[in-house]
Amino acid sequence: MEYYELLAKRRMYRHFSRQPVPDPVLKRILEAATRGPSAGFTQGFDFLVLNQRPALDKFWELAITEDWKEKTTSHQGLWNAPVVVLPLANPDAYLSRYSEKDKSYANLVTERDWPIPFWFIDTAFATMLMLNSVVNENLGALFFGLFRNVDLIKNAFRIPDTFHPIGAVAIGFPTSDTKSSSAKRPRREQSSQIHFNTFS
Ligand SMILES: Cc1cc2nc3c(=O)[nH]c(=O)nc-3n(C[C@H](O)[C@H](O)[C@H](O)COP(=O)(O)O)c2cc1C
Predict the structure, then answer these.
(1) Which domain holds residue 50?
(2) Which end is more exposed in the chain, N or C (fewer Cβ atoms within 10 Å of the end residue's Cβ)?
(3) The CATH number of the domain where 129 resides is what?
(4) Residue at 199 is within a domain
(5) What is the pLDDT of residue 1?
(6) pLDDT-derived band of residue 62, with 50, 70 and 90 as boundaries?
């Protein structure tokens, strides 16, 4: 697939069949995610991949309520996705890397010293690579926020305390095309969004 065609084609899907994602395909998608840039080449992001039903069922049990599951029309079938990946940002890896000789000049000693937390940036870049690779494999994905029970989810899957899931990515074979309320918003005019040489 041509690169710009792929970007234009990418969008979030919220309904999946239970058809499994073949292992080699999943492997390619995950490998792509590890190819992202990272500050100081810290690579301070991990991925928790849930691709077995008991693990997936546990995740959904904690991540969403029965009430929402019944009521949502935009996300019916999200929980059928055969794969859910939690991209995990690890600030400690950055604190450690930036205490090394070639980086210590920056004086980024505690998390609060970082004007922008690079661990979230790097983890998001990696996640974007995953989303694009999903398109390249003719699958669908949804990146979604975790709004409840994050500590319980971390506990259930033995995620170390210092790792923060930036959200979750459901991956699978999309079954329908219902857009969320957000996706119905119009795309911004590029002329109002891209500023050449001066902002205004
Ligand atoms: C940080 C972030 C959080 C998001 N959280 C959710 C979410 O919780 N639920 C959801 O359905 N979509 C979520 N989305 C998807 C957006 O709604 C979607 O990207 C946007 O509407 C544009 O649609 P498109 O990605 O299909 O082009 C999220 C996207 C991002 C980047």
Answers:
(1) 3-193
(2) C
(3) 3.40.109.10
(4) no
(5) 79
(6) very high
User: pLDDT digit string (tens) for 76-87?
Assistant: 999 999 999 999
Report the number of distinct structural domains present in the chain: 1
* Residue 179 Cβ contacting ligand 1 at under 6 Å: no
Check pocket membership of 76 for ligand 1, CB cut-off 6 A. no
Does position 112 have pLDDT exceeding 90, yes or no? Answer: yes
Closest CA to 43 of 88, 85, 100: 88
Please give the Cα distance from 118 to 94 (Å, whole number). Answer: 8
- Average pLDDT of the residues in 113-128: 98
